[in-house]
Amino acid sequence: MTAKKAYSRMGFATLAFMASWNAVVLGLSFILVLGFKIKLGTEFAILLNLIGELLVGFPLFYLIARKVPVEERIIPERNGGNAGFVFKTVFVMFGISIVGGIISTVLNSVLAETVNKTSDAGIVDLFESNFVLVAINVMFVAPIVEEYIMRKMLIDRVVRYGKKTAMIMSGILFGLLHGNLEQFFYTFFVGMVFAYVYIKTGKLRYPVFLHFVLNSTSTLLSYCMSKIPEFTQIEDTDKLVEAVLKSDTKTICFLIITAIMVIEYLGGFIGLIGLLVNKKRIGFTESTVEASELLDENVLTNQYIANDEEGTVSDESQERFENYNRYGLVKEKKPVSPAEAIFNPGMISAFVGLIVIMILSFFI
User: Fold this and answer.
1) Does residue 179 come out as left (phi exceeding 0), alpha (psi in the -120 to 50 range) or beta?
2) How many CB atoms lie within 10 A of CB 323?
3) Which 3 state secondary structure label does DSSP give 307?
4) In terms of pTM, does the model score above 0.90?
5) Backbone angles phi, psi at 338, to 5 degrees
6) Alpha-carbon torsion 291, 343, 280, 171, what sign?
7) 68, 9 Cβ separation under 8 angstroms
8) Closest listed residue to residue 261, CA positions, set 221, 215, 210, 214
9) 313 by DSSP, 3-state: which?
10) pLDDT tens string 264-310
11) Residue ranges of the alpha helices (H) in 202-282?
């Protein structure tokens, strides 16, 4: 299958996922509200989203995407996937998420002023209704489902056409998948981080873990903020501290907020500095040997078991040979650019459809 056809089908799969998900949520909402006169609270909204996402959207995505063959598995790159790599990536993720969040906030403010829309403060109502249900959905369901779709299902099927393009496209679709302008740049940047880690390690559990960490910190931060309404009501710092100290719950939440923000901003700053310093070392190692060539014992010996002057096997060559035995070989075709990956019927349809959903969600 060509790169154009593969990316096109994945684009149609993503559009079908989002369109069916939103259609089910809206359809069931109208039925419950107009037909049964049920007032939809946060619990109903979350349950409807889970029904649309897990029972309709995800199966439809899978049925369409599975037509794109997975001929290879991703080989973990040398030194990729160890504890140190994942630990450092957490701080890079925080830094990039802050940058993306700032861009999204500025864009949202400009658009809000343009259409004279004020931002709502629904986060308080969201967490006051059922924190456990919100936490389960955001911290556990979302990381597993979204990473499986945007990393496992997508990248496994297009990585042969270029790792960098696969990473960028995974980030773009991940941003559009969230269906709102406020989150796009934030989710686009962190989506590329998740994709980078998955391509580097070949293990889905690492981006799922990073996604869990990011969603957990933001969920806990939002929950604690909802418990201290004085943050948005009192501008004087002394009065704010005085109001917080009057309640043990508010004091604990204030300490949690402070700890999270220190870790995210300080760690994120360190992560970004490390990213800039080591920018030449964060690329991908491309594989170019076809799997069929490995049938030739001489090719296997010459290209994968590179002997040194004493006739012993180097550690790097041995590691690559063992990875082939464990994971198979990624048969890289001619890499395509992100522009080539975008300009096809499926991806264009996905972009237009998801952007329409994002715009509608902004005005609703």
Assistant:
1) left
2) 19
3) strand
4) no
5) -55, -35
6) negative
7) yes
8) 221
9) strand
10) 999 999 999 988 888 777 777 655 434 443 333 344 444 444 444 44
11) 205-226, 230-233, 237-245, 248-277
